[in-house]
Amino acid sequence: MRVVVCIGGSVLAPDLDPRRVEAHGEVIEGLAAEGCSVAAVVGGGGVARDYIGTARELGANEVQLDRIGIDVTRINARLLIAALGADADPKVAQDYEDAGDALRRGDVSVMGGVMPGQTTDAVAAALAEYVGADLLVYATSVDGVYSADPDADADAEKYGRLTPAELVDVIAPMSRGAGASAPVDLLAAKLIERSGMRTIVLDGTDPDRIGTAVRRGDHGGTDVVP
Amino acid sequence: MRVVVCIGGSVLAPDLDPRRVEAHGEVIEGLAAEGCSVAAVVGGGGVARDYIGTARELGANEVQLDRIGIDVTRINARLLIAALGADADPKVAQDYEDAGDALRRGDVSVMGGVMPGQTTDAVAAALAEYVGADLLVYATSVDGVYSADPDADADAEKYGRLTPAELVDVIAPMSRGAGASAPVDLLAAKLIERSGMRTIVLDGTDPDRIGTAVRRGDHGGTDVVP
Amino acid sequence: MRVVVCIGGSVLAPDLDPRRVEAHGEVIEGLAAEGCSVAAVVGGGGVARDYIGTARELGANEVQLDRIGIDVTRINARLLIAALGADADPKVAQDYEDAGDALRRGDVSVMGGVMPGQTTDAVAAALAEYVGADLLVYATSVDGVYSADPDADADAEKYGRLTPAELVDVIAPMSRGAGASAPVDLLAAKLIERSGMRTIVLDGTDPDRIGTAVRRGDHGGTDVVP
Amino acid sequence: MRVVVCIGGSVLAPDLDPRRVEAHGEVIEGLAAEGCSVAAVVGGGGVARDYIGTARELGANEVQLDRIGIDVTRINARLLIAALGADADPKVAQDYEDAGDALRRGDVSVMGGVMPGQTTDAVAAALAEYVGADLLVYATSVDGVYSADPDADADAEKYGRLTPAELVDVIAPMSRGAGASAPVDLLAAKLIERSGMRTIVLDGTDPDRIGTAVRRGDHGGTDVVP
Amino acid sequence: MRVVVCIGGSVLAPDLDPRRVEAHGEVIEGLAAEGCSVAAVVGGGGVARDYIGTARELGANEVQLDRIGIDVTRINARLLIAALGADADPKVAQDYEDAGDALRRGDVSVMGGVMPGQTTDAVAAALAEYVGADLLVYATSVDGVYSADPDADADAEKYGRLTPAELVDVIAPMSRGAGASAPVDLLAAKLIERSGMRTIVLDGTDPDRIGTAVRRGDHGGTDVVP
Amino acid sequence: MRVVVCIGGSVLAPDLDPRRVEAHGEVIEGLAAEGCSVAAVVGGGGVARDYIGTARELGANEVQLDRIGIDVTRINARLLIAALGADADPKVAQDYEDAGDALRRGDVSVMGGVMPGQTTDAVAAALAEYVGADLLVYATSVDGVYSADPDADADAEKYGRLTPAELVDVIAPMSRGAGASAPVDLLAAKLIERSGMRTIVLDGTDPDRIGTAVRRGDHGGTDVVP
Ligand SMILES: Nc1ncnc2c1ncn2[C@@H]1O[C@H](COP(=O)(O)OP(=O)(O)OP(=O)(O)O)[C@@H](O)[C@H]1O
Ligand SMILES: Nc1ncnc2c1ncn2[C@@H]1O[C@H](COP(=O)(O)OP(=O)(O)OP(=O)(O)O)[C@@H](O)[C@H]1O
Ligand SMILES: Nc1ncnc2c1ncn2[C@@H]1O[C@H](COP(=O)(O)OP(=O)(O)OP(=O)(O)O)[C@@H](O)[C@H]1O
Ligand SMILES: Nc1ncnc2c1ncn2[C@@H]1O[C@H](COP(=O)(O)OP(=O)(O)OP(=O)(O)O)[C@@H](O)[C@H]1O
Ligand SMILES: Nc1ncnc2c1ncn2[C@@H]1O[C@H](COP(=O)(O)OP(=O)(O)OP(=O)(O)O)[C@@H](O)[C@H]1O
Ligand SMILES: [Co+2]
Ligand SMILES: [Co+2]
Ligand SMILES: [Co+2]
Ligand SMILES: [Co+2]
Ligand SMILES: [Co+2]
Ligand SMILES: [Co+2]
Ligand SMILES: [Mg+2]
Ligand SMILES: [Mg+2]
Q1: Residue D187: which pLDDT band, with cuts at 50, 70 and 90?
Q2: Residue whose CA is closest, atom 7 of ligand 4?
Q3: Is E211 a pocket residue for ligand 4 (Cβ < 6 Å)?
């Protein structure tokens, strides 16, 4: 089985706590030990947001801000690589080909962002398609896709199951307006739709859920099933 | 004044006719001669579509298809660079920083696609933001943004003027379903919205319209005004 | 056994027909399945010629034309990689070291042109030498080396067997004058002479001949035997 | 006049405060406006230390820790580039040649770390030599070189003036033992000695001191005069 | 006027004597001071031959030997760059585009070899074409093109003037057999024929001849005139 | 067992004698055949010194001189790679990650210098740490670390055993002053101290000592034991 796991920066390293990174590493090592081929895409989290905030005040444009965000995701990727030790390709994959190469050699591959204009959510969806993954997991800071932002709307209901097309329909209106956020961004949702990739969105603050989701499909989040 | 022009591959080189490429080059040379700083982003057109069709039948995945498309856009960029001669940076810019560098040195910069998952439409929007363009022009195969695909719907009406947010609203429903096409794709529209970039969508089969649009804002297409 | 196959662009993808590319891929897969180590060098064909013709009219110089040709050969290489699927290194080798690396790991390696001033014929000859090939096969649009251009001279006779030095002597006069063409170009012939590489020139429009030539040395073309 | 300024990460962005970065940018812009050719080398500061601490606990080795540190210095460099706007080369220089190139074109160049095993202190000293600087300024968190660590030893006395050889003699014993720190590290001091570069170590928490030091040689720190 | 000068390694640095390199640098500086745009391509000379001899005995193949030769030419290029100081692009150009870029910015550009299979003679001919040179000068260890190797044949006669086609005819037979040498190699001669480049072959052991040849066309060597 | 061997240029190829390089290759092949994972770092030797001397007279600065030195070390690395044949990664590793990659795949990896400001001695120490070596061997032109330069001081005594901290103490005073030389340079010694790496300094003019030292710890040089 081949899995791409997208781990939000705020989920991997909310405060650079090594035990959290270690826990994520252990889940991936466990999957690899069972013969699963795993690639991880790591987000930027709070450090990225802080740097981007400062750079924006200094007059950086959006492409420059994205570059800073990408740099931070790649440092976060180095943390996960350190936690994975001998199982992982020691280089942060710079593009899909690098990551595919590492998987072909039997390594776990870890990457961050790639190019301005694409979030790590979208990178994970494109990578899943590129390496022919059986499953794409978003380990994020909410426990699934809701009908509305659960932080803002107490009546928001979690979807247990969506088709990729429904995912796009749910996400599309969320991705308008400044500061909009969503558990998976619109470009990612559209790439999932394009490839018909089986996808799970789950609460990544408990890394063990990732392992359970891959092994038994049991995760308490949202299943996106083509 | 600084302008980014996105020239569709089917508009630049529908059948690799050098006179068409030459005509586009002359418009850009004219603008440069008047002191305008110009970057061009070139699409893939029919050659890209043919190669992608073949590769898809051979089992290539979407990321690989995008790579082929990007390669073709960069060859098209070389044609435009040849037409521009001494005015242009002789290298195809590989990313936004390369293009920005060339503009800072006073050259016209030409680029194609950049990364899988992003069309040249989106590249042009990101580049316009990165280089602080005053205007972004899409020279495409229709003469503006319509309420529906004018090829399919005889009642489609052309918009004379839209806000970036309205552009996103018009484009969003067009970008669903296989084979969907639009004069500007959704990621591009969202980048235009993010940056509040002044944008024109016009009929690029007559290259002179590009010059007129830049100089006098007179173009017969759709104005996107923040 | 280790083989380098040089497949002319017009032989691999005369009209971008996927079945033709597929057929070439199957021959290579068959050889690889028998334990043969295979590298392929792919030419530019008609698409390269069309682009080069247009670029020349636009005033591009010979180095720029070569660059365009190289880009097209690399797209053609992507087609063959797609056809080969899991057997091939998914990256187009950019130089001899890349290709050698892929062969060492047990992959089929595919490359196109490398640098202006060198045709893919010469690249194949240099690659064969670099990877210590036992055999170099030119799958081209004629069925061997003739005493004169068989298209132009009805009395041209096909050589069944030549030494590398004789190959150079036959090729040298053919490579003078505008529009000159030869089944293997002069630089390639000289590299074959330098390395004393066993070489076959055969009709590549029937891909099966390549397999037969490698397995049984039976091919209906010209044998170059040091 | 040509100056290389090494700005400690903790001095440039102790808490990612944009005003502090802005203030440093203004000093450099002021010097550039007066015709001074300026390159800046930026350190890692607290963010680097935090990441390195986490990675060390995860089992990363020293080279990997250095890589993380380098990545952070380059993000800090992006902040300073954003503050400098049009005066600076928008790319973070990756090596001495890149930085030299930018200075030759009249840009301010900003770089961070370069390779594991070399601090930004040493990078600045090597860069100063490479670009033929007239002056090298270390803007750090102490106001000069003391006879002992002023944080630990109340009797430490500040040197007003040292020769490069004396600088090495003072620094050498400081650079032993875990957690050792010094206002300029030993490799840097030895590079200063090798090139005989005029150098000033000053309190960088007040960016204006940098400008004063360059213009009038008045800075309240330590002068290293060959 | 734009000139490409190809300086044989044995002519530039027969024994690494700095005065010889300095003398070549002064000729180029003189031309540049008169407004001439100059690119130099430097050969490998004795150091290259020594290393290649050793590597051949160790079993390196021809491509690996060429790589070693290229590395040496690039070190020789660094010597000439050091001699040229501020006039030259401090980076050794790695390909034609790099060299063209440097000339466009008004720098002297220096390069060595580029790819296995191409000598620096051929690189110079391709570069001359790429940058649109008015003149290509080969500064070599003989004082022109002879009817036979003057070292071996006392009756060899120097040609005062040849057409490019005649040059190819003279060179072709010289370039057969092991250890063959010629003042300009066959691939270079064919590139000169292809581009119709005006070319001079002269005695480079006296660097001043290069300056005289460029300024007055007076050089005592062989003129190749299309 | 994993070993990094640093072979001085003057020890590997004092006069480019292939037998000497071959002898070094055989020692490494022997170790690899016994299952030892080996990386070699190769110095510059006499060729580097000659080129650097010439470039210094031509006015090159220290960074440029280091670049020349690095280029020569990499050519020397190619010689050793040729000698090693199929056991070695055919590419010269350009950084620690490349070398680590090759070792992970089971290849012998060979590298030279990396960046200006770091000798190959320091590169070897950093590489040993990066790849988690069990042992670092300096094969140099003296048979160990002495209390003073044995060439200059007849009373110099060889140390049989030192701690890393003692090594730094012994080396530090040697590394002052122009033309200073030491069997291991100061930056390397400090990296050895940082990592607590077991290290042997031995007479590399007899390559067999390297094999004996690795296998039996018997070498007649100096042991550095943490
Ligand atoms: N309909 C919705 N369903 C679920 N979450 C939603 C919805 N709309 C908005 N959200 C918000 O999306 C956010 C998803 O987490 P977020 O992307 O910020 O973190 P992450 O992906 O773990 O890390 P990173 O910082 O790397 O992106 C949550 O804050 C959640 O409140
Ligand atoms: N609402 C709409 N308004 C305008 N055009 C539309 C609309 N919906 C669909 N289209 C279609 O969008 C297409 C825009 O052109 P297209 O993107 O194919 O070519 P291009 O951008 O010039 O070249 P390239 O092949 O490089 O993309 C037209 O075919 C047009 O029919
Ligand atoms: N003899 C000394 N003279 C001056 N400072 C000393 C001495 N010995 C130790 N130090 C310490 O050196 C440190 C220099 O600052 P430090 O290198 O930590 O910050 P920085 O260079 O500004 O930022 P960065 O984190 O990027 O290196 C101070 O903490 C100071 O106490
Ligand atoms: N017909 C000929 N006319 C002139 N020279 C000839 C001829 N045939 C052979 N040669 C030989 O060609 C050689 C040209 O010099 P050579 O290429 O060795 O040195 P170079 O180009 O200056 O330096 P490098 O070592 O970089 O190539 C001379 O040794 C000369 O004897
Ligand atoms: N205390 C000392 N103990 C041992 N050797 C010393 C000492 N002090 C100085 N040396 C000198 O250090 C030198 C070590 O050799 P050196 O570094 O020149 O060559 P290498 O490392 O083999 O090759 P490379 O030229 O690549 O560096 C010897 O010349 C030796 O005389
Ligand atoms: Co997210
Ligand atoms: Co389009
Ligand atoms: Co052919
Ligand atoms: Co510091
Ligand atoms: Co020559
Ligand atoms: Co040494
Ligand atoms: Mg997020
Ligand atoms: Mg020669």
Answers
A1: confident
A2: E149
A3: no
Q: Taking CB atoms and an 8 Å limit, are B62 and A175 in contact across chains?
A: no
Give E187's pLDDT tier (boundaries 50, 70, 90): confident
Report residue B28's pLDDT band, with 50, 70 and 90 as the boundaries.
very high
B90–E97 CB contact, under 8 Å: yes
E135-140 and E199-203 strand pairing: parallel
Question: Per DSSP, what are the bridge partners of residue B224?
Answer: B162, B199
Greater pLDDT, A158 or F182: A158
Query: β-strands C135-140, C222-224: how paired?
Result: unpaired
- Match 């705020």 to its residue by tokens: A10
The answer, for E94 touching chain B at a CB cutoff of 8 Å, is no
Q: Does F161 touch chain D (CB under 8 A)?
A: no
Q: Which two tokens stand for residue A92?
A: 């942060």
Question: Given an 8 Å threshold on Cβ–Cβ distance, is F58 in contact with E22?
Answer: yes
ipTM computed for the complex: 0.92
The answer to whether residues B37 and B71 touch, using CB atoms and an 8 Å cutoff, is: no
Residue F117 has pLDDT above 90, yes or no: no
Distance from C-alpha of E75 to C-alpha of E114, rounded to nearest angstrom: 13
| Protein residue closest via CA to atom 8 of ligand 5 | F149
Judge whether F91 and C97 are in contact, CB under 8 Å: yes
Give the separation between CA F29 and CA A34, rounded to whole angstroms: 35
pLDDT at D176 over 80: no
Indicate yes or no: CB of D91 within 8 angstroms of CB of B101. yes
Instruction: Show Cβ contacts of residue A160 under 8 Å, excluding neighbours closer than 6 positions.
Output: A144, A222, A223
pLDDT at residue F92 in the model = 98
pLDDT tens for chain A, 226 residues long, are: 999 999 999 999 999 999 999 999 999 999 999 999 999 999 999 999 999 999 999 999 999 999 999 999 999 999 999 999 999 999 999 999 999 999 999 999 999 999 998 899 999 999 999 999 999 999 999 999 999 999 889 999 999 999 999 999 999 877 665 456 888 988 899 999 989 999 999 999 999 999 999 998 889 999 999 9
Ligand 4 pocket: which of E119, E146, E186 to mutate (most atoms <8 Å of CB)?
Answer: E146
User: Residue C91 and residue C84: Cα distance in Å, rounded?
Assistant: 12
CATH of region C2-224, choose from 3.40.605.10, 3.40.50.920, 3.40.1160.10, 3.90.79.10? 3.40.1160.10
- Half-sphere exposure of D163 toward its Cβ, with a 13 Å CA cutoff? 5
The atom of ligand 1 lying closest to the CA of A44 is 26
* Residue D163 predicted with pLDDT over 90: yes
Measured from CB, residues less than 6 Å from any atom of ligand 3 are: D 8-11, 43-45, 140-142, 145-146, 148-151, 174, 181-183
In this structure, are residues C102 and C43 in contact, taking their beta carbons and an 8 Å threshold? no
Do D168 and F191 lie within an 8 Å CB cutoff?
no
**Spatial separation of the C-alpha atoms in residues B95 and B71, rounded to whole Å:** 14
Instruction: Give the ligand at the shortest distance from the Cα of E49.
Output: 4
Q: Which residues have CB under 8 Å from A215's CB, separation 6+?
A: A31, A34
Cβ(B201)–Cβ(B207) below 8 Å: no
Smallest CA-to-CA distance from E209 within E2, E11, E46 is with E11
Whether the per-residue pLDDT at C178 is higher than 50: the answer is: no
**Interior/surface letters E34-70, b for 16+ CB within 10 angstroms, e for the rest:** eebbbbbbbbbbebbeebbebbbbbebbbbbbbbbbb
pLDDT digits (tens, 9 = 90+) for B153-162: 999 999 999 9
How far does the CA of residue B165 sit from the closest CA of chain E (Å)? Answer: 41
Question: Taken in order F133, F138, F144, F149, is the CA torsion positive or negative?
Answer: negative
Touching check for D127 and chain A: CB below 8 Å? no
